[in-house]
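Appendix B, record 7
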Amino acid sequence: MAAKVKLKNCPCCGGNAREYIDGGSLVVECHKCSLSIRRHLVPPSEWMLAAERCRECWNRRPKIKEGANSNPPTPQGQNG
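Structure tokens (predicted):
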């Protein structure tokens, strides 16, 4: 059996992530800002795969090209 994927901190606020079952879904949620993702766990035979994919989705981060401006441009006519 593969090792459990460790959850990264929240991509929005840096808070700790936790996972729990809510009804028929696995939820990964930031404890600080409540950002979350959800993966349905039906049928039960696929729960482990769904949980692994949910953790991988939470941990995915966009690749930002070096030198790219992380701040979007301000629309014309609007200041700061």
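Remarks on this record: DSSP finds one helix and three strands in the chain. Residues 17-59 form one domain.
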